[in-house]
From TrEMBL:
Organism classification: Bacteria, Bacillati, Actinomycetota, Actinomycetes, Micrococcales
Family label: Belongs to the class I-like SAM-binding methyltransferase superfamily. RsmB/NOP family.
Species this chain originates from: Isoptericola dokdonensis DS-3
Chain intervals for the UniProt region annotation (Disordered): 1-47
Lineage top rank: taxon: Bacteria
Residue ranges annotated for the SAM-dependent MTase RsmB/NOP-type domain, each copy included: 207-510
Record-annotated active site: C436 (nucleophile)
One annotated GO biological process: regulation of DNA-templated transcription
Binding site for S-adenosyl-L-methionine: C312, A313, G314, P315, G316, G317, K318, E337, D365, D383
GO molecular function: RNA binding; RNA methyltransferase activity
Protein name: Ribosomal RNA small subunit methyltransferase B
Keyword terms of this UniProt record: Methyltransferase, RNA-binding, S-adenosyl-L-methionine, Transferase
Length: 511
């Protein structure tokens, strides 16, 4: 094609001075800025740029924000208020992505899946500033348009400007009413306003009902998943106590609600600055994770109590607490992990334990251990690989990656690991089956499936054991004490207990 022949469509989109206009502006649909062209923001601030780059890495590389964001902030020299802003913008956008997509869909003239992924992430960041943060509307729009110009170009920036102005004209409560009214059914309405996939929303609702709670709590559970969790520390018994934990630092702590080993770090404090955390005498660990570990150690045994096993030990938080408890009784721990890089994390987590407390960090398939060492252990922890639906507030991107198809492979693996653990424990010994998921298929159904083929296993009252290990005076609401497993197993909830949604079943191998 000759380059000196004018393009008809291009001429239609030129202004009186012959300058090229965007397609939206040529149709009279673009929002106009009050800034003069010379004053328009060409770039945005480093905090917003960092949040955008993390979102793109999460989407394009299946990265986890909690692993990508901290080193990126350090690399770019962001700290204090800038780092806090980038963190809230990044995590808040990931958590509330489903809600914002439902709102953006009403403001964009095409399906969202037809937008460039970079543009869609810019729009989500802008929506969170407008609807989920205390950012003035003019700043949220202008800074996000600047981000769009810098990262995706001037043309898309015009569309971002128009869409965000439309988003900002309606308050969040009105948007939620519209999204709710447009949904075809109650579950979809909950999923969109609560920013979870429909299948996860349905599964959580069923899990609440199956564990003796009111299914009407679903909205509260979804909202708890969308709230940033507090940083909780664990003091490993025999290695450090509460008085030593913050000694010599400016960190402020308060005691946990449930576990005697738990301490909550005040907002703005960095756990890495605490010497006890740096050297492994303490660590960052959810209070629910601490409770289920303490429960296994506290379950009464018949016979010796000398050799403990963590069957799926990576990354090592529960193993370190178990090893400290074992050391206090003269017992030893074997920590098994199938992935070599996770086994190295376990070794690092156990570095503060005294000599002799850890028999070995073993790299191998936990499904084989019951055959290789039958009846060799007194206590066994099966912290089974799962969907992680109980920790969505910590890893918000997981909710958008998981699919119902994941359940088939995971539940099969969970059942194999539990069978191996029951073979590895001696008669009279105890197995704790733990998941960071409340999904009934990964909890109750896995245990029931395994027990149907065994007549040498007794289900214990895990609720009674957990209540025994609580901080004195604590009253843990575990739902209705129904019959069967619903009255024996423990299921924790973010909206009730402020913990991850940890599940615990305790089993004793018959003598």
């Amino acid at each position: 094609m000759s380059t000196d022949r004018p393009d008809r469509h291009g001429d239609d989109r030129r202004d009186a001075r012959g300058r090229q206009r965007g397609a939206a502006r040529s149709r009279g649909q673009a929002g106009r800025t009050t800034q003069a062209p010379a004053d328009r923001r060409r770039r945005t601030d480093p905090a917003r740029t960092a949040a955008f780059d993390v979102l793109r890495d999460v989407d394009a590389s299946d990265a986890y924000a909690n692993l990508v964001l901290p080193p990126l902030l350090r690399e770019r020299g962001l700290s204090g208020r800038d780092a806090a802003f980038a963190t809230e913008l990044c995590y808040g956008t990931l958590r509330l992505r489903g809600r914002y997509d439902a709102i953006l869909a009403a403001c964009v003239d095409r399906p969202l899946d037809r937008l460039d992924p970079d543009v869609l992430d810019v729009l989500r960041l802008g929506a969170h500033q407008l609807l989920g943060m205390r950012v003035p509307a003019h700043a949220a729009v202008s800074e996000t348009v600047g981000l769009a110009r810098d990262r995706v170009g001037a043309g898309p920036a015009q569309m971002v400007n128009a869409v965000l102005r439309k988003v900002g004209r309606t308050p969040l409560p009105e948007w939620l009413d519209r999204v709710r009214d447009d949904a075809p059914d109650e579950i979809t309405a909950l999923a969109r306003t609560g920013s979870h996939p429909v299948w996860i929303t349905r599964a959580l609702r069923e899990a609440l009902h199956g564990n003796g709670r009111d299914a009407g709590e679903t909205a509260d559970l979804l909202e708890a998943d969308n709230t940033a969790p507090r940083v909780t520390l664990v003091t490993r018994p025999g290695l450090v106590d509460a008085d030593e934990l913050a000694a010599g630092t400016d960190a402020r702590l308060q005691a946990g609600r449930w576990a005697p080993t738990a301490h909550v770090l005040a907002p703005g404090s960095d756990p890495a600055t605490l010497p006890a955390v740096a050297d492994g005498r303490a660590g960052v660990q959810d209070e629910g994770s601490q409770l289920v570990t303490l429960a296994l150690a506290a379950t009464p045994l018949d016979g010796p109590d000398a050799r403990w096993l963590d069957l799926c030990a990576g990354p090592g938080g529960k193993a370190a607490l178990l090893a400290a408890l074992a050391a206090g009784r003269g017992a030893t721990l074997v920590a098994n992990e199938i992935a070599p890089h996770r086994a190295r994390l376990v070794e690092r987590g156990l570095r503060a334990l005294p000599a002799g407390a850890v028999e070995a960090v073993r790299t191998g398939d936990g499904r084989d251990l019951g055959t290789e060492e039958p009846g060799a252990y007194d206590r066994v922890l099966v912290d089974a690989p799962c969907t992680g639906l109980g920790a969505l507030r910590r890893r918000p991107e997981s909710r958008w990656r998981r699919t119902p198809a994941d359940l088939g492979a995971l539940t099969g693996l969970q059942a194999e690991l539990l069978r191996s653990a029951l073979d590895a424990v001696r008669p009279g010994g105890v197995v704790a089956y733990v998941t960071c998921s409340p999904h009934l298929a990964e909890t109750r159904l896995v245990v029931d499936t395994v027990l149907r083929r065994r007549d040498d296993v007794e289900r214990l009252d895990a609720r009674a054991v957990v209540r025994d290990v609580l901080v004195p005076g604590a009253d843990l609401d575990l739902g209705a004490d129904g019959g069967g497993a619903a009255g024996l197993d423990v299921q924790l909830w973010p909206h009730v207990h402020g913990t991850d949604a940890m599940h615990l079943t305790l089993l004793r191998r018959a003598g």
